Amino acid sequence: MATSYPATAAHGAVTGLANHGTASLTSPLSPAPAYTPVQVRQSFGQPPYPTTTYPVPHPYGPHHVPPPLPMTNNYAPNGTAAAPVVAQESPKKKIEWPDSVRSYVQRSFLPANLDEAVSRPEMEAKLKETISQANDSGVMYTINWETMPLPQQMIKEERARARALPQALQSVQISPPVAARPKSGSKKRKSSELIDNHLNTPTAPWRAPARLEDRVTFNADKRQPAEEPSPPSKNVSKFQKQMEKRQKRFDGGYTSTYRSPSPPPSNGPVVGTCTTLEKRYLRLTSAPVASLVRPEPILRQTLELLKRKWKKEQNYSYICDQFKSMRQDLTVQRIKNDFTVEVYEIHARIALEKGDLGEYNQCQTQLKALYQLGLKGKPIEFKAYRILYFIHTANRTALNDALADLTTAEKGEKAIKHALNVRSALALGNYHRFFRLYNETPNMGAYLMDMFVARERLAALCNICKAYKPDVPLRFITEELYYESDADAAQFILDYDGRHLLEERDGNIVFLTGKAGQLFEAPKSAAFARVDIKGQI
Amino acid sequence: MNSMLEDFGEALADRNGYQLAQTLSPSLPDETLRGIFKSCNAHDVRLILQRNIQRSFPGMMDKNTNNEVQAWVEVYHCYWKTIGEILAIQDSSANGKSSQWAQSSWTKVYQNWHEMLNVLIRGYLNSHFEAWTIPCLYVAGKHLRIFAIKADAERNSSSSLDTGGANFEDDFNPESEKNKQLEDCARQLNRVFNLCLSDRSPLEESRKWGIYYVINLLFKTYFKLNSASLSKNILKALSAGRGDMPPLPAFPKSQQVTFKYYEGVLRFLEEDYAQAEHHLTEAWNLCHKDAVRNKELILTYLIPCHLLTTHTLPSLKLLEPYPRLQKLFLPLSNSIKKGDLHAFDLALLEGEDEFVKRRIYLTLERGRDIALRNLLRKVFIAGGFEEPKEEGAKPVRRSRIPIAEFAAAISLGSQETLEDDEVECLLANMIYKNLMKGYIARERGILVLSKSGAFPGTGV
Known about the structure:
The complex is a heterodimer of chains A (537) and B (460). Chain A contains 22 helices and 3 strands. Chain A is an all-alpha fold and 537 residues long. Chain B has a 3-stranded antiparallel beta sheet. Chain B is 63% helix and 2% strand. Chains A and B meet through helix 11, helix 13, helix 15, helix 18 and helix 19 of A and helix 18, helix 22 and strand 2 of B.
């Protein structure tokens, strides 16, 4: 069994590459020569494309005729997802997959191990690759499958490398650490490409020509040319030039409705190649261009730079612009990880500090979704802000949603508890408690509370004016409504034409509540009516 | 297939819209569906339809009739294709194959059905179909929504297919990825709404008669999408065109009830409790006596409404047929009656998840005011009467009550100790909200209550 394999495998790999070549030829927008990748075959060194060594169906392959959609469940350890992966491997002669392999596959698809950033097809392709390589090289029984990295880990690592070495496509000579490497004939080259090998392949995994869909679906190649890693090929750079030219035409003020002949929807997200740290924000009007998008390692540097700049310069319009372009780069590359959370959190905090609620709300909406993906960050802090924010915007529906979103454990967390107490104090008109809570707001919640404290003071004044007769000391107002000083309290009353309500008596100022009548009612209604925020959902 | 087309002919002859719509229903017994699907194949389906449908149109084949025939052929062709997709799903699940390979079949069903709706809409716009056929739109709309929900559920449960390819937004939009199909469905239903609204034909043959069915469907969809606020646009468009609209009572009762219910809930969510009560009461009165589930839904919002507008609680008799509502409201309502703040807080906490889910938490929470009012009223009554100033005069309740007495009652009732200032704050609130008449004399530390009706509406 193992002996019959290497030949097939080599064949498969070659056809795989050729397949890819023809595929890109059919792509209407790619002037890149279809056969560039074939060069790889001449030297059996490190291929620039992730080579897959499992058998690919080809017309003249006598060994196996795998159906395009194998339905054999024989080898599926857990029935559903793993079935196609493993079944695809099966040549006519059935292979008994060792339990270790099965449990490896099973482990890969455990919900706990699933990674949002890695799609299922990618995982399946990677699994297939890994297992078939092990099988081809005859190490399937010797490899320690328990310590084998999961496909999602491999893919992520690959991506990281792909970004780290954007240009280093040529010949990266890295010696694979795994011992199981038969060094016989050149045909065996494929078998040497074990996991560690494709870990080093600097190409993004979704470019792998091995994906089942690529061969099954009708549009042979949906990848957009923009994603081609800048290769040595002259044609591609020409293409990029065209793209840039097109881009310039854009900037030059052609009507905004103009769209470049829209490329077919991309198969995967764009991977940026831009290495400049700073970038002005521009709303996208067409598919992103890789050369203008910064990959994650660059973005990480950008974030550090921005943090420093913010501390030093406090230039909000600059910072906001930069953060928006960062968010855009993250989104077009569909990077959703802890770093993404960090970017949004920092932008949200800065926006809060500067009272830019529109921007803050955008970040908050994203953060909510990101936390739901189980990413790390400061969910407690931001869920508390969220509640305060909806109190401010008096958005009952959203507030109800925010409440529904909390777990019992979260309700016990200090920041969230505080926000909930603020909410209930206001709901019951308990201004006494509200202003005590105002004084002890954790984190940056006070920035949010500042936004509605004035209106709550008005509401409380309305209350007090109706309930207390004939007067109260101004001191009482100062303390109840948490003004900095009596002067502040007096000023607030004066601001609403309440001069006649203040009277000096025995060296103390009293507030003639009995005479206030409806004085504060109109301003109160106005204050509650006017909550209109840009960017509000 | 034949019996389906016979029914079609019959319905056409009788001008019976509901019977006609029944022939387009995809929720028929399996064998029936299979029979329809198997009776022809992709090549001859059009031909068979054409021949049979034509037969249902006796008399001369003028250009108009021919157009209508073609339109129906298109409709039934789409219907046939949809059935095929539905059966395909059943087959694959029956064979135990994972739906991985079925390639989001519900999405395909949705697409085919969507196509059918398109053909229908086009038929109406080109006035091939008469207004009496609008129940076809009901069936199309109703199932479009069902298929959309199924398609979304299927897509979300299968792999995390990244579909945001042609999206130029700066941030990703998790909600719309989750409800992609249903959002599209809402757009389609909106088209149907406008199709009905904009019909200028005389009322007797107007598509306007379809409007409330579609509106109800739209409301349902918007609520499901968590964007109930969009319903307001519909109401606005409706009231703008109300002049030449048949009055609501002229529509089937089922449509009236549903519409009133949603209108009430929408007002409820906007905190317009008076209006909410008005609409919900209408819905309640119109509701069929055996529609327990619907009555329960109406009461879920009507009871909190009443609590706020008239400070009344549901009677045991009212709640008797609804064990679920009893569980929901009785603990709260008992604690309010007794003025037991602590029990109220516990009941609110106990039911919080359910209340939040039904969006009544924020409303019920305000019931605490009523509980507090009842507690304070007890203090007032316990204070007894003043010494009569003259013999035989009508006894007068003691109306100057030390704040400390209220403080004691509140602390007992809520089982937490409050500062005097906070007690005053609560009293001020009572006064401000007209639950209590009087004023606080802070200097003297007393609450002066009105001698006539200190607690309005409670008899003292």
